[in-house]
Amino acid sequence: MSRSTPRIGLLGVVLALIAALLAGVLTACATPTGSASGPTADPSGSGVSSSSNTFPTEEVYGPDPDPVLRLVTCDGALDAAGHPVDNLIVYASLR
Length: 95
Known about the structure:
With 95 residues, the protein is an alpha+beta fold. The protein has helices spanning 4-23, 57-61; strands at residues 29-30, 36-37, 39-41, 48-51, 68-78, 84-94. The strands form two sheets. Strands 3, 4, 5 and 6 form a four-stranded antiparallel sheet that branches. It starts with a helix and ends with a strand.
């Protein structure tokens, strides 16, 4: 097995999660009231591409008064070392 096999497998999982999230509900979660809810992609912020140099750290990792999910993965062209130069950010919240 080559070193790239796990990365391809992980990429497949990440892409499947992004597709599920963008399609609607990713998974169901129990809420404090006992009902079930799941994260749904926010229409205005779904699939946002951001340069690694201008990554919105506070927006992605900062506090939020509501339960949220931020899925961050690599995106964009590759630099000379073969690393992606951008990030893809999917914003989701419980609905």
